[in-house]
Specification:
Elements lengths: L1 E4 L14 E6 L4 E6 L2 E7 L5 E8 L22 H4 L17 E4 L9 E9 L2 E8 L4 E10 L4 E10 L5 E12 L6 E7 L7 E6 L3 E7 L8 E9 L10 E6 L5 E7 L5 E7 L6 E3 L4 E3 L3 E6 L2 H17 L12 E3 L1 H4 L5 H14 L3 E4 L29 H9 L3 E6 L3 E2 L4 H5 L19 E2 L5 H17 L3 E6 L21 H19 L4 E4 L17 E3 L6 H14 L5 E5 L12 H9 L2 E4 L8 H23 L1 E6 L6 E7 L5 E8 L21 E6 L10 E3 H7 L10 E9 L2
Parallel strand pairs: 22-23, 22-31, 23-24, 24-27, 27-28, 28-29, 29-30, 30-31
Antiparallel strand pairs: 1-2, 2-3, 3-4, 4-5, 6-11, 7-8, 8-9, 9-10, 10-20, 10-21, 11-18, 11-19, 12-13, 12-15, 14-17, 15-16, 16-21, 17-18, 25-26, 32-33, 33-34, 34-37, 35-36, 35-37
Bound molecules: alpha-D-galactopyranose.
The site of alpha-D-galactopyranose has 11 residues, from loops.
């Protein structure tokens, strides 16, 4: 069976077109998944088990691959299943490595032996059926190839056809096996509130490294993304990198494992911690999508592939979706003290700067005058907005902006009408204390009545105010006491999966009913950013830390895994919450490397600030397509010292933008020459400097000059910054 996808590849300017194809090689019992520049091969071995064969650069189509054969046992202590790279190991039969599926079968049997049973190829999708040797417990492994980026998606559907009750104790989306090797290095993203997206690198040693969330949502502490390079030899511009990301906004886990036999693999899916998922006869469970890719172009190319993939395959609207508008957000200016005249005054100033969207943050509903009350009561506070929201929305629209609003639908303050009416709706265990965080409890969104209530409240808000074009959907704490006492005890742990599923359903239904609505995912900053939520929101709030200096690092880490298009970045006031003061241009240029927003108190901005801000917004509009949908080159990292620079090249190559920051300087020590990347050596580029810091002052230069000779920038004192815009001469 053969299926060819004639999807052209566009990576870099001159990349050859590579197609996608999934092919079964009957004589060898191999499936060859050709995803553009990448090949991925699995096969059935002599024991009828599904075995991983190859993942890396695309192979020649005539290459004669050997059929899958298991590896021999290693003494009596490691039988062959421990030495063989299995594609989806079920736990049983003396396996000691991380399983993809662990179950208790009817009659208490806790042993699985998954064997190949059948397959189906439909276009870009392959389905392989596995089945236990004696019980009718089935696993469908679903693979999809994305030839433009070489990314492959996998997930599993576990079906209980045994006729009895089965309990799943671990259900993973899949395992990514690397070629047997030595000295692999893991790169991952860790963090905390206001310090998300920190880049961590460490050698992979025998044993297991766990990167996970046990918090009910994606989490600030780690992001479900990984990259692995060989021998630590990859850098920004070259080297083999295998990378991947999970699409799940609830408890997730990656185990990065090196077995005693030098097999490195990343297993990921639902976090097995406190996991128990009963499947009644006939029921199925689908695991989250797990995406992964491969490149020889180092971390820079791995990121560019992820960016392109997110933009074209993950985000709502795909490649055709519009550029993100410049927004103004009221939070840091007014916090909870929002009212109609105050918001109108801010809106007037935001419009003068060229903002295209005005977002009123927290404080507009219920008895919400601080974080002690009001969550759950999604009705307009009439003391602050005596005539409802419409007068403000209309005013904002007249100023030429659309209107957005903040909600935190999954939460309840004990001091709210909702909690007084339905204390049982908050997640809890009976007769146990309820742990508050920011004075709030988590609603049990796994309950359908709670989900329907919240749907009704939000649907009413959007229906009564059709001018609401945008919602910032927040989640300001993690789970505690994750009880679901209304369910039978054996079913209660399903809360971990059902909660996230219901949040997804809520968003999907609200979007379907209010198709013009755009959404920003937020969880106290970047606590809910993953490829699951990103299929249903246009952008994310990157971090509550808006200090520009900290942000350079935070945003660089973010860019490893996610596209700058969705990376909402505000310009806020100084001194920032950490006491640091940086110049307005530095703050603007930092925010302009993502999706620009303004979050300062404009009432306090001077005339000079307003003029500079107006110019910066105008500049941003002229480069945003390049920043949001271009190819990012991280030229100098903010991790390494006082100087950092990044460059964005438009997909069509017509524009490039260089941002440079001098955050600290040693006296008399000039910044390094910046050699650009990703340009056409033969082409000429007009150079537009935003100020007088471009030392060579050339009005135009060739791609060869810019990439080899490079540019010098006169960046002196602390927190100095500049930008160059290059326009290709046709
Ligand atoms: C969270 C968000 C902030 C702001 C506040 C409002 O912390 O990340 O941007 O919306 O909530 O309470």
């Amino acid at each position: 069976m053969n299926s060819r996808l004639a999807i052209p590849l566009l990576i870099g300017i001159l990349a050859p077109a590579l197609s996608g194809e999934i092919r079964y090689v009957t004589a060898k019992k191999l499936w060859r998944l050709e995803a553009g520049p990448v090949s991925y091969v699995v096969g059935v071995n002599e024991r009828n088990e599904l075995q991983h064969v190859y993942w890396g650069k695309r192979l020649g189509s005539d290459d004669d691959l050997a059929a899958a054969r298991s590896n021999p046992e290693w003494a009596s202590f490691d039988n062959s299943v421990n030495t063989t790279p299995e594609e989806f190991p079920g736990w049983g039969g003396g396996r000691y490595t991380e399983p993809c599926l662990k179950v208790t079968l009817p009659n208490g049997v806790r042993d699985l032996a998954l064997k190949y049973s059948s397959y189906r190829i439909e276009g870009d999708t392959l389905r392989i059926e596995l089945k236990d040797v004696s019980y009718d417990l089935g696993v469908t492994l679903v693979y999809r190839v994305f030839p433009e980026t070489g990314i492959i998606r996998k997930h599993a559907v576990i079906a209980n056809r045994t006729g009895g009750a089965v309990t799943l104790e671990s259900a993973q989306s899949g395992a990514w096996n690397l070629p047997r090797g030595e000295g692999y290095r893991l790169t991952y993203l860790s963090g905390r509130w206001a310090g998300e997206w920190q880049i961590d690198q460490e050698p992979i040693h025998p044993g297991m490294k766990i990167v996970e969330s046990r918090r009910g949502n994606t989490g600030h502490q780690a992001n479900p993304w990984f990259a692995i390079d060989e021998g630590g030899r990859a850098d920004e511009s070259q080297g083999r990198v295998w990378f991947g990301a999970l699409g799940w906004s609830g408890n997730w886990r990656f185990s990065i494992e090196q077995t005693a036999h030098q097999q490195v693999r990343v297993t990921g899916g639902f976090n097995p911690f406190d996991f128990s998922y009963p499947l009644a006869a006939g029921e199925t469970l689908e695991t989250p999508p797990f995406y992964a890719g491969y490149t020889e172009g180092g971390f820079g190319e791995a990121s560019r592939l992820m960016h392109r993939f997110e933009r074209t395959e993950i985000l709502p609207g795909g490649a055709a979706s519009r550029a993100r508008p410049v927004l103004y957000n009221s939070w840091e200016a007014t916090e909870f003290a929002v009212d109609e005249p105050g918001q109108k005054a801010l809106a007037e100033k935001a419009a003068k700067l060229g903002a295209e969207r005005f977002v009123m943050d927290d404080g507009w509903f219920g008895a919400r005058n601080s974080d002690h009350a009001g969550l759950g009561d999604w009705t307009v506070n009439r003391a602050k907005f005596p005539n409802g929201l419409r007068p403000l929305i209309e005013y904002v629209n007249q100023l030429g902006m659309d209107f957005g609003i903040w909600v935190e639908p999954e939460m309840v303050n004990p001091d709210s009408d909702l909690y007084r009416q339905h204390p049982d709706w908050a997640m809890h265990f009976p007769d146990r204390p309820r742990t508050e965080a920011r004075n709030q409890l988590v609603l049990n969104m796994a309950r359908n009545d709670v989900k329907e209530y919240i749907f009704g409240a939000l649907d009413r808000l959007f229906s009564e105010n059709p001018g609401i074009a945008f919602v910032k959907w927040d989640m300001n704490r993690n789970f505690s006491e994750p009880g679901w006492p209304e369910e039978p005890p054996a079913e209660q742990k399903k809360i971990w999966v059902a909660y996230t599923r219901n949040v997804y359903e809520l968003i999907d239904r609200l979007r379907a009913k209010h198709p013009k609505l755009e959404i920003e995912a937020c969880s106290g900053g970047g606590g809910r950013v993953d490829l699951g939520i990103l299929t249903r929101v246009e952008e994310v709030w990157t971090s509550d830390n808006t200090d520009a200096f900290d942000r350079l690092r935070i945003q660089e880490g973010f860019s490893y895994a996610h596209t700058p298009k969705i990376m909402m970045a505000w310009v806020t006031d100084v001194p920032n919450f950490n006491g640091r003061t940086t110049p307005l241009q530095y703050r603007f240029l930092t925010a302009m490397t993502g999706s620009l927003g303004i979050g300062g108190n404009l009432n306090k901005w001077s005339a000079a600030d307003m003029t500079l801000a107006g110019r910066m917004v105008e500049l941003y509009k002229s480069i945003r397509q390049t920043v949001q949908a271009g190819r990012l080159y991280r030229l100098f990292s903010p991790q390494s010292g006082g100087f950092s620079a990044s460059e964005y090249v438009a997909e069509d190559g017509r524009q490039a933008v260089l941002f440079a920051f001098r955050s600290a300087q040693h006296f008399g020590y000039p910044p390094p020459t910046v050699r650009l990347s990703g340009l056409d050596e033969q082409a000429t580029y007009r150079v537009r400097a935003i100020d007088d810091k471009f030392v060579e002052r050339l009005p135009a230069a060739s791609g060869a000059y810019l990439m080899n000779h490079g540019v010098n920038l006169r960046l002196g004192g602390d927190f100095d910054s500049t930008a160059l815009v290059l326009e290709r001469v046709p």
